[in-house]
C-alpha cells in the first residue's frame, strides 16, 4: 500500500498519518522514518520489501520527497527513480509506504509522478480556505469570539501546528470554564516573533521609536539574541523587496510563495507591507543592517547598543 501526501499544511498531513497509525494499531517498533534529503531511496524500498520480524504489517514514512516536484534540489542526494518505479509495479501488501512532500504542488510532467498517481493514494493538503473556521473547530466545545480568534492569529501566526498546540494549552488551563476571553489569549499564548516582525518593521520605517523599542525589549526579554534579531529583520526586509519585484513581473501570491519556498500567508503580509515601503527604503535598511552586522562581528560596537542605536537613528 502506497500513499503520497503533499501540500503546505503539515498539520493536516500529520493528522492523516495519525489516522493510519490508529487504523492499523501500529506501535513505535513497527514504524520507521526516512528523510529523502539525506537517505537513499534504495534504503526506503528495501525496508518496504523486507518482511517484518515483529508483525505482518509495518509503516514507512519518507519525508522530503521533493524529487516529485518541479523545485530544483539545492541540497541532498540524487535519488534513483528506477528502484521506486520497480517497487510500484509490485508493492509489498504488508507495508504501508508514505511519501511526504511539503510543497504546494507536484510536477505532473514527471514519469514517476504519473505512475504514483496511478498506483498510490494521493492526497493534497494545502492552505485552508478559512483559517478562522479551522481554529474554531480546534476550540470546540469551547466558545471564542471572532475578534479573539483574530487576536490569536495575530499573536501566534498561521502555522496550524503551533496554533493547535496553543489552543490545547488554553483548553487545559480553562478546564470546565468554556468561554475563552481576550485575557486568556494574552496571558496564555506565546507571541510568534516572525509574525510580530512585520509590525516591528512598520514601526521602524514609520519612525515610531517607542513602539519599536518596546518590541525590541520584548524580544530580548523572550531570550532572542540581538544578532538573530538583525538577521530576522534583514530577512523580512529582503522578503518584502523580493515579493514586490516578483509581483511586478506578473507573479501571483501563490507563484511567489512557490518561487521563494515560503508559506503563502507570509507572502500575503509581505506584499501588503510592500505597498507602503519604496524600493529605496527597503534597500537602504538592508544596507544599514549589513553594516551593523559587520560592526558588531568586527568588535566595533556592542551588539545590544548597536541594535538600539540602529532603532533610534532609523
Quick tags:
314 residues, alpha/beta, 5-stranded parallel sheet, two-stranded parallel sheet, 15 helices
In which order are the strands of the major sheet placed?
A: 2-3-4-1-5
Largest sheet: 5 strands, parallel
The shape, in one word, is globular
| Rounded radius of gyration (Å) | 23 Å
Count of strand segments: 7
Task: Give the N-terminus to C-terminus distance in angstroms.
Answer: 59 Å
Low-confidence stretches: none
Q: Which H/E pattern describes the elements?
A: EHEHEHEHEHEHHEHHHHHHHH
Q: How many helical stretches?
A: 15
* Main structural class: alpha/beta
Helix content: 55-70%
On the 0 to 100 scale, the average pLDDT is 88
Strand fraction equals 5-15%
Structural write-up:
It is a single chain. With 314 residues, the chain is of the alpha/beta class. The protein is 58% helix and 10% strand. The protein has 15 helices and seven strands. It has helices at residues 10-24, 41-49, 81-89, 111-119, 131-139, 146-156, 160-174, 182-188, 193-205, 209-221, 226-248, 253-260, 264-274, 279-297, 303-313, and strands at residues 2-6, 31-35, 58-63, 95-101, 121-124, 143-144, 179-180. The strands form two sheets. It has a five-stranded parallel beta sheet, sandwiched between helices. Strands 6-7 form a two-stranded parallel ribbon. Helix 5 runs parallel beside helix 7 and helix 9 packs antiparallel against helix 10 (209-221).
Q: Briefly, what is this?
A:
It contains 15 helices and seven strands.
Write the layout of secondary structure elements.
Elements: E1 2-6, H1 10-24, E2 31-35, H2 41-49, E3 58-63, H3 81-89, E4 95-101, H4 111-119, E5 121-124, H5 131-139, E6 143-144, H6 146-156, H7 160-174, E7 179-180, H8 182-188, H9 193-205, H10 209-221, H11 226-248, H12 253-260, H13 264-274, H14 279-297, H15 303-313
Parallel strand pairs: 1-4, 1-5, 2-3, 3-4, 6-7
Amino acid at each position: 500500500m502506497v500513499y503520497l501526501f503533499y501540500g503546505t499544511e503539515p498539520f493536516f498531513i500529520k493528522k492523516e498519518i495519525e489516522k493510519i497509525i490508529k487504523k492499523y494499531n501500529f506501535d513505535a517498533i513497527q514504524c520507521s522514518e526516512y528523510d529523502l534529503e539525506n537517505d537513499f531511496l534504495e534504503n526506503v524500498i528495501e525496508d518496504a520489501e523486507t518482511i517484518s520480524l515483529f508483525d505482518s504489517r509495518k509503516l514507512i514514512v519518507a519525508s522530503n520527497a521533493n524529487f516529485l516536484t518541479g523545485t530544483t534540489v539545492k541540497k541532498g542526494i540524487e535519488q534513483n527513480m528506477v528502484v521506486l518505479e520497480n517497487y510500484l509495479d509490485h508493492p509489498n501488501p504488508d507495508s504501508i509506504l508514505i511519501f511526504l512532500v511539503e510543497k504546494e504542488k507536484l510536477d505532473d510532467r514527471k514519469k514517476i509522478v504519473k505512475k504514483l498517481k496511478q498506483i498510490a493514494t494521493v492526497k493534497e493538503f494545502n492552505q485552508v480556505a478559512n483559517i478562522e473556521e479551522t481554529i474554531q473547530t480546534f476550540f470546540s466545545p469551547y466558545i471564542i469570539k471572532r475578534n479573539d480568534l483574530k487576536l490569536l492569529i495575530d499573536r501566534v501566526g498561521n502555522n496550524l501546528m503551533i496554533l493547535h498546540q496553543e489552543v490545547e494549552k488554553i483548553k487545559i488551563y480553562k478546564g470546565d470554564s468554556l468561554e475563552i476571553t481576550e485575557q486568556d489569549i494574552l496571558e496564555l499564548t506565546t507571541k510568534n516573533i516572525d509574525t510580530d516582525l512585520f509590525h516591528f518593521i512598520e514601526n521602524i520605517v514609520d519612525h515610531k521609536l517607542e513602539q519599536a523599542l518596546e518590541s525590541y525589549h520584548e524580544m530580548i526579554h523572550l531570550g532572542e539574541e540581538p544578532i538573530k534579531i538583525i538577521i530576522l529583520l534583514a530577512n523580512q526586509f529582503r522578503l518584502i523587496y523580493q515579493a514586490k519585484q516578483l509581483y511586478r513581473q506578473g507573479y501571483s501570491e501563490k507563484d511567489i510563495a512557490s518561487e521563494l519556498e515560503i508559506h503563502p500567508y507570509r507572502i500575503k503580509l509581505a506584499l501588503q507591507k510592500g505597498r507602503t515601503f519604496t524600493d529605496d527604503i527597503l534597500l537602504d535598511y538592508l544596507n544599514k543592517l549589513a553594516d551593523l552586522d559587520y560592526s558588531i562581528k568586527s568588535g566595533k560596537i556592542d551588539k545590544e547598543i548597536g541594535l538600539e542605536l540602529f532603532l533610534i537613528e532609523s
